[in-house]
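Page 42, continued from yesterday. The earlier attempt failed because a stray header line got pasted into the input along with the sequence. Redoing it now with the clean sequence only.
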Amino acid sequence: MTIKKFTIEELNLLNRGTMMEFLQIEYLEVSDGFIKARMPVNESTIQPDGILHGGASLALAETLAGLGSALLVDLASFNVRGAQVSGNHIGTARSGWVIAEGRLIHKGQHTHIWNIDISDQQGIPVSICRITNFIQKKEEES
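This time it went through. Structure tokens are written below.
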């Protein structure tokens, strides 16, 4: 695997003016086939019942998988597009941060598949997600 070299600070700057900035997603670590980030459990990410919204968890998971795939391809020639997102919400979080760890499990020519595990600050699982990304040549996209 070849990962483009960016500092964590440079990666976090990519979130400016995006949903990731609104959700306050912060990248913590990136290496070959691995990415780690955190997101606060606050008024921007909870549902009316006061627990982390499942949609916020899925947005966090898709964000990690998308960035992870983007770091593995030549973005001048290819686009990374989410194809499928699934998640099992197996716990809850009411405050603090959730930590997401993404691992690349398949790196094909046209698809990447990621597992994303989201836990609370104590390491208790909150969501388990799987993301499939399409890798498309730029002239193929319509």
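Notes: The chain has a mean pLDDT of 95.
Reminder to self: strip header lines before submitting.
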